[in-house]
DNA sequence: TGCTAAGCGAGACGGTACGTCCCGTCTTTTA
DNA sequence: TAAAAGACGGGACGTACCGTCTCGCTTAGCA
């Protein structure tokens, strides 16, 4: 179908020139399509790119499971993988996908499916291993990791700040692990603890 | 000096049409300046906007101190203020400033000075009050808040996700407070706790 | 068709501001056309103007035939008409048309057709009348007039020199009439005459 | 003096890029002069170029006298020299100099002095030789040649038309020689001749 | 000897036009 | 009969000159 060929061109061009420099004109040229044909299908550049990403083939870099033997090590490994994922695309692309994707659960899912374990999710295997080791209480939930890690690393990436092992260690120790530990019984009455 | 007048126009236009739609042409028209004059000073739109923000007057919306009587309330109030700050500019603006600014400590400081208490910092008064109330241990440090709150809220803002009181409560309870509590003596040996 | 409207504007502007001051921008403004539309059709200003002149309607100032009763009078009248024609356009226009036109027989013919009897040609009626009066020998040919008159008058015009009746009389008496008379039997053996 | 250096740059640039493409900016750059300095001296580009040509050194290509043994041969040789002279400069330069120069007798003389025998004048030696041979009557005057040759050849040059020996022969035979012969006793009553 | 004033370079300035590119809409042609 | 091909008005891009102007910095000459 025509649409598929067009979207392949979109992805090619995205890779070559980035999101900002991608134009309808160039897509039409590359796909030997009429601009009218493009506009008939997608109202905006964003729509077109989103469609292209949705249609894109699952990028098969399925990495293996994470298991370093400790929660701390696992979390750092996951963060590193996530950071790698982010730095592999260009900044605008990352941003565009985030900007577009998280408004669109559909696309969000497509990206996850397409890109495999990105480090944005905290795998159940890591959780259960940590609980088994006694590092996390039974009932701990992945929310803190998933809410925090992506945001913090993306912004550091956008801002050109490093996310080296020192920083990641600090992040894991002072934020992620305390929050994960507390996630089993959320919102305990504060008084109770210190009384 | 000519530069000041031009930058005022830049800020006006930024407010009116946003970053993406801001053009050299429009700035030149508004400032009754030649395009050559603009290009002589700033190579790119980003440079020009950054200069405008740096030069911009302190935006006097100095809000009062936060003191709701509880750490939880204070944190939620700070997050709300931060969210408001972010939503006051348009998305691309926020992003641009972040993208530009955090690479440039100068600009970073300028923004903070210009915009007053944005909610991006955890005021010492809030910390000490919480410690006085026994909500936080002596020695607690603001790092978790400052590292997390900005990132998470900005991304939610960029993604059009709500940051209502329900969400903020959850964020505060499951992430911020546990992490702040743990910040006094970071990296305790994990075993020690659960043994 | 769009092209015709545009070329009309070109001719208008040519008349108003002259060739040198004519710009693509102004044509686009006047014709409410995009500059791209102009550049798509004509690579250079000269091309555009040449096209406009080619397309231009026959300028209806068809003057009547010349017949003053003597060859001398007719020739002076023709020169005056030619001079008037030349001075009606601005210098650069004249030059441009000559420069462009005479390299392009097509355009050359178009100009002649468009502008009617310009005085650049020696009408057959003038020739035959002169022959009838005995002022020219049978077999006289218009070449000397046509080769000379245009060149000389154009250059005087370009150089701002006058071409008044005194000058024209001189030109006719000392150059045109002798040459026309000699044109019947060209290249007579020189000796024969003075022997 | 500063002016001399500047005018040298003008001549250099004239030679390199031609008249049309010559700009005040470029002259200022090359001469390391301020634009104000240029404008203080010359109001227009034409003025500046004219000044440069006036100041330019005499170009010493003084060619020898012409003497082929016949008037016809001499005239053709002179025309060829004139044509060569014209084709040595670029079209716009020729035109500019003519346009500027012939309005300005000063410059006109400067050009003649600077460029030596250009073929634009009919040397007295050629005239007297022709009279001696009986090819021209006593009292013949050079006006027809000088008025005609320059104009006709310049226009052919501007129009890219050839001025080969065939054409020159025709020009000499049908126009120049008859007119020169008639120049001794101008304006004979026409009737007288054919009666 | 010290001061003043002219001339200079440097280049900023508001403008205008350049020629290119892309936008989003539209007709016209081809298969 | 839908798609390609691409013309169209619009408008921003970044560059180059225009002609005017204000700066300091020489560098005299005059005091």
Which key phrases capture this entry?
homotetramer, 195 residues, mainly alpha, 11 helices, disordered C terminus, DNA-binding
Give the integer mean of the pLDDT values of chain A.
80
Number of DSSP-assigned strands of chain A: 0
Report the helical percentage of chain A: 55-70%
Task: Describe the main β-sheet of chain A briefly.
Answer: none
Chain pair forming the biggest interface = A-B, 40 and 42 residues
The percentage of residues in β strands of chain A lies in under 5%
Number of helices, where a helix is a run of at least 4 consecutive DSSP H or I residues of chain A: 11
Describe the structure.
Four copies of one chain form a homotetramer. Chain A is mainly α. The first copy, chain A, has helices at residues 2-17, 24-31, 35-41, 45-55, 71-88, 91-101, 105-115, 124-133, 143-158, 165-182, 190-194. The longest helix of chain A has 18 residues, at 71-88. The interface between A and B is large, with 40 and 42 residues. Chain A binds a DNA duplex (31 and 31 nucleotides) through residues 2, 23-26, 28, 32-37, 39-40.
What would you say about this model in short?
The structure is a homotetramer of 195-residue chains. With 195 residues, chain A is mostly helical.
SSE inventory with pairings:
4 copies of one chain form a homotetramer.
Chain A: H1 2-17, H2 24-31, H3 35-41, H4 45-55, H5 71-88, H6 91-101, H7 105-115, H8 124-133, H9 143-158, H10 165-182, H11 190-194
The first copy, chain A, binds a DNA duplex (31 and 31 nucleotides) through residues 2, 23-26, 28, 32-37, 39-40.
């Amino acid at each position: 179908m025509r649409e598929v060929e067009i979207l392949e061109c979109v992805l090619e061009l995205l890779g070559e020139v980035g999101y900002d420099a991608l134009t309808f004109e160039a897509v039409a040229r590359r796909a030997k399509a009429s601009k009218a044909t493009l506009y008939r299908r997608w109202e905006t550049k964003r729509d077109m790119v989103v469609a292209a990403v949705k249609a894109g083939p699952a990028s098969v870099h399925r990495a293996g499971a994470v298991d370093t033997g400790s929660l701390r090590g696992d979390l750092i490994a996951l963060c590193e993988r996530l950071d790698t994922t982010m730095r592999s695309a260009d900044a605008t692309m990352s941003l565009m996908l985030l900007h577009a994707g998280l408004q669109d659960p559909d696309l969000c899912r497509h990206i996850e499916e397409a890109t495999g374990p990105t480090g944005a999710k905290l795998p159940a295997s890591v959780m259960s291993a940590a609980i088994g080791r006694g590092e996390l209480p039974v009932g701990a939930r992945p929310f803190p990791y998933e809410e925090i890690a992506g945001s913090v690393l993306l912004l550091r990436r956008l801002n050109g700040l490093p996310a080296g092992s020192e920083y990641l260690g600090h992040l894991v120790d002072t934020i992620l692990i305390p929050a994960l530990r507390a996630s089993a019984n959320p919102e305990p009455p504060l008084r109770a603890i210190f009384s």
